[in-house]
Design a protein that fits this description.
single chain; about 250 residues; Alpha-Beta Plaits; about 30% helix; alpha+beta; disordered N terminus; 8-stranded antiparallel β-barrel; about 30% strand
Length: about 250
């Protein structure tokens, strides 16, 4: 347990150092654009975006996913997502043929683009997330805004949850992202992906709850760690929304 405690402290130090840097050549980068569509133009937008996707987003390098926001204040908006990129990918993002096609054939249906956000995926806080998997039908987007100076407290609980998932073969799919550019640098987003509302992840080898398994691994500290984690978050820094896949505007679907 002492070795595990020291390892967690080391991970906290690495996380805080990385989170304070603007970019890192070893990070895995993702981008997202959230779009508000002109009233009554959703069908036209989906058709135009689908044609663009089938024409220009056909390879792993150019692959893109499109989701529609189903709940919350952004309900009805669309989000276009690209991922699994290294930093060199950004050299060719602007001014390519796909972007020109979008501006000519798709942008006419867009009322507002909320702006691109660049993220890095925190692999230590991700579970069952890999590039071989197809985009899921749904995902919950869980937003957490961390108070300045409290990243370590956030990290400890989140990292321990992930370790419980790994040890007990949790079947759910989760990833954690942090803003690199285009948003609040203290914003963490957990993506919980699934295809069936009746099965969003389970522990196949035990009937025990997450809390029970956590307490077994970490000396009964679940409630205390959760309290520290909650204290590390801004009071207004909690939001959850559901997104649904638009298959026709998603590569390979």
């Amino acid at each position: 347990m002492k070795k595990l405690f020291l390892l967690n402290l080391s991970l906290v130090a690495v996380f805080i150092f990385s989170a304070n840097a603007q970019t890192n050549p070893n990070w895995e980068y993702w981008t997202s654009n959230r779009l508000e569509i002109k009233k009554g133009m959703s069908a036209e937008f989906e058709k135009a975006a689908s044609l663009k996707t089938k024409k220009f987003n056909t390879t792993p390098e150019t692959a893109i996913s499109t989701y529609k926001v189903m709940t919350g204040p952004d309900q009805g908006k669309y989000e276009r997502i690209q991922g699994y990129k290294d930093i060199s990918w950004f050299n060719g993002v602007n001014g390519n043929e796909g972007m020109k096609y979008w501006m000519k054939n798709v942008s006419e249906f867009v009322n507002q683009n909320d702006g691109r956000i660049i993220w890095w995926r925190i692999k230590n806080l991700s579970h069952n997330w890999n590039p071989e998997s197809k985009p899921t039908k749904y995902f919950h987007r869980v937003i957490r805004i961390v108070k300045p100076g409290k990243l370590g407290d956030f990290w400890r609980f989140a990292n321990r949850i992930t370790e419980v998932y790994k040890k007990h073969n949790f079947t759910g799919i989760q990833a954690c992202f942090n803003v690199v550019s285009g948003g609040n640098e203290n914003m963490m987003v957990f993506v919980d992906a699934f295809n069936d509302f009746t099965d969003q992840g389970k522990f196949p080898d035990t009937d025990k709850s997450l809390k029970e398994l956590y307490n077994e691994m970490y000396n009964g500290s679940y409630d205390r760690d959760l309290e520290i984690y909650n204290d590390a978050l801004e009071m207004w820094g909690r939001q959850k929304e559901l997104l649904s896949l638009v298959p026709e505007a998603t590569t390979g679907m």
